[in-house]
Amino acid sequence: MYSSLYRDISKVFETAVKQSKNYHSNDIAGKLETINNIWCRLEDDSRRNWYFICRTNGKTVTDYYGYPCSTYPVALLMNSCPESIAKLLKDNNVYIEKYCEHYYCEESVLKEYVDDVAFIDDSFLYDNDIPFDFELYSEIEEGIK
Question: What sign has the CA pseudo-torsion 44, 63, 54, 89?
């Protein structure tokens, strides 16, 4: 089991994967953008799997509020997220999780969430009590999917 630094989102994704047929992230993004000064756009850095929700002044981002998934009805919301955004997501059957730096998800659930990837335990990168795995690190550096 992982330490308290990790938030377990296995149950949320297990439920969300089963309900993904009725989820249309483009519609949710459009509804979010009807709220004044809110942008909801696909995040380029996440291989376009997550949107970002933010406040804007019309030219640039001023505050980030969270990340709804583009494929499954899950949103990771920051503490600063306005209740109007959380309510809109809840009203559209999106499961909300509190945003944190690190998440944990059971491998069996992850296999439903992602396609054609190898699952690795990279704890050795973050935990000094675990011996460093040079062979696995080499595979990660080579771009193992």
Answer: positive
> Which SS3 state, helix, strand or coil, does residue 102 take?
strand
- CA-to-CA separations, 12 to 54, 55, 107, in angstroms, rounded: 23, 26, 14
Closest CA to 66 of 54, 48, 82: 54
pTM, to two decimals:
0.72
User: What are the residue ranges spanned by the domains of the chain?
Assistant: 8-103, 115-145
Tens digit of pLDDT for each residue in 9-28?
889 888 888 888 888 988 99
Q: Which two tokens stand for residue 129?
A: 């009590």
Full DSSP string of 30-72: HHHTTSTTEEEEE-GGGTTSBEEEEEE-SSSEEEEEEEEBSSS
SS3 145: coil
